[in-house]
Amino acid sequence: MAQVEALVNDKLAEAEAAVSGGDTQVVVILALMNLAEALLGAQNELAEDRRNSNERIAGLIERLDRQKV
Protein backbone atom coordinates (compact mmCIF):
# COMPACT_ATOMS: atom_id res chain seq x y z
CA MET A 1 0.00 0.00 0.00
CA ALA A 2 2.92 2.32 0.75
CA GLN A 3 4.19 1.86 -2.82
CA VAL A 4 0.80 2.89 -4.22
CA GLU A 5 0.72 5.96 -2.00
CA ALA A 6 4.25 6.91 -3.03
CA LEU A 7 3.42 6.47 -6.73
CA VAL A 8 0.28 8.59 -6.45
CA ASN A 9 2.12 11.29 -4.51
CA ASP A 10 4.89 11.34 -7.12
CA LYS A 11 2.41 11.65 -9.97
CA LEU A 12 0.54 14.42 -8.14
CA ALA A 13 3.80 16.30 -7.57
CA GLU A 14 4.76 15.93 -11.24
CA ALA A 15 1.35 17.17 -12.36
CA GLU A 16 1.43 20.07 -9.91
CA ALA A 17 4.82 21.14 -11.24
CA ALA A 18 3.48 21.04 -14.82
CA VAL A 19 0.31 23.06 -14.14
CA SER A 20 0.49 26.79 -13.68
CA GLY A 21 -2.11 28.27 -11.38
CA GLY A 22 -2.31 25.24 -9.11
CA ASP A 23 -5.99 24.36 -9.73
CA THR A 24 -6.40 21.20 -7.63
CA GLN A 25 -8.88 19.55 -10.00
CA VAL A 26 -6.62 20.09 -13.01
CA VAL A 27 -3.66 18.67 -11.09
CA VAL A 28 -5.61 15.57 -10.04
CA ILE A 29 -7.00 15.00 -13.54
CA LEU A 30 -3.53 15.32 -15.08
CA ALA A 31 -2.09 12.91 -12.52
CA LEU A 32 -4.88 10.41 -13.22
CA MET A 33 -4.33 10.70 -16.96
CA ASN A 34 -0.59 10.11 -16.48
CA LEU A 35 -1.30 7.04 -14.34
CA ALA A 36 -3.78 5.72 -16.91
CA GLU A 37 -1.23 6.22 -19.69
CA ALA A 38 1.39 4.33 -17.67
CA LEU A 39 -1.11 1.53 -17.02
CA LEU A 40 -2.00 1.20 -20.69
CA GLY A 41 1.69 1.12 -21.60
CA ALA A 42 2.34 -1.61 -19.05
CA GLN A 43 -0.65 -3.61 -20.30
CA ASN A 44 0.56 -3.35 -23.90
CA GLU A 45 4.06 -4.41 -22.88
CA LEU A 46 2.67 -7.38 -20.95
CA ALA A 47 0.51 -8.42 -23.91
CA GLU A 48 3.55 -8.26 -26.21
CA ASP A 49 5.61 -10.31 -23.75
CA ARG A 50 2.83 -12.90 -23.58
CA ARG A 51 2.64 -13.11 -27.37
CA ASN A 52 6.39 -13.58 -27.60
CA SER A 53 6.36 -16.22 -24.88
CA ASN A 54 3.49 -18.11 -26.51
CA GLU A 55 5.27 -18.08 -29.87
CA ARG A 56 8.46 -19.32 -28.27
CA ILE A 57 6.63 -22.06 -26.36
CA ALA A 58 4.83 -23.14 -29.53
CA GLY A 59 8.17 -23.33 -31.33
CA LEU A 60 9.70 -25.41 -28.56
CA ILE A 61 6.71 -27.78 -28.52
CA GLU A 62 6.99 -28.14 -32.28
CA ARG A 63 10.69 -29.02 -31.98
CA LEU A 64 9.92 -31.59 -29.28
CA ASP A 65 7.16 -33.11 -31.39
CA ARG A 66 9.52 -33.44 -34.37
CA GLN A 67 12.10 -35.21 -32.21
CA LYS A 68 9.52 -37.82 -31.18
CA VAL A 69 9.04 -38.96 -34.76
Question: Would you mind describing this structure in some detail?
Answer:
The chain contains two helices and no strands. The protein has 69 residues and is mainly α. The chain has one domain. It is rod-shaped, with a radius of gyration of 21 Å. The termini are far apart. 3% of the residues are buried. The mean pLDDT is 94. This is Cell division protein ZapA. Keywords: Cell cycle, Cell division. Pfam families: ZapA.
In short:
One of its GO terms (biological process) is cell division. This protein has two helices and no strands. It is mainly α and 69 residues long.
Helix content: over 70%
Largest sheet report:
none
Count every helix, treating DSSP H or I runs of 4 or more residues as helices: 2
What are the segments in which pLDDT stays under 50 over at least 5 consecutive residues?
none
Q: Strand percentage, roughly? A: under 5%
Q: In angstroms, what is the radius of gyration?
A: 21 Å
Number of domains: 1
Structural class: mainly alpha
Shape: rod-shaped
Distance between the termini: 53 Å
Mean pLDDT: 94
User: What is the string of helix and strand elements?
Assistant: HH
How many β-strand runs?
0
Protein name: Cell division protein ZapA
Organism: Geoanaerobacter pelophilus
Pfam family, one: ZapA
Keywords: Cell cycle, Cell division
List its traits.
about 70 residues; mainly alpha; 2 helices
Secondary-structure blueprint of this entry?
Elements: H1 2-18, H2 24-68
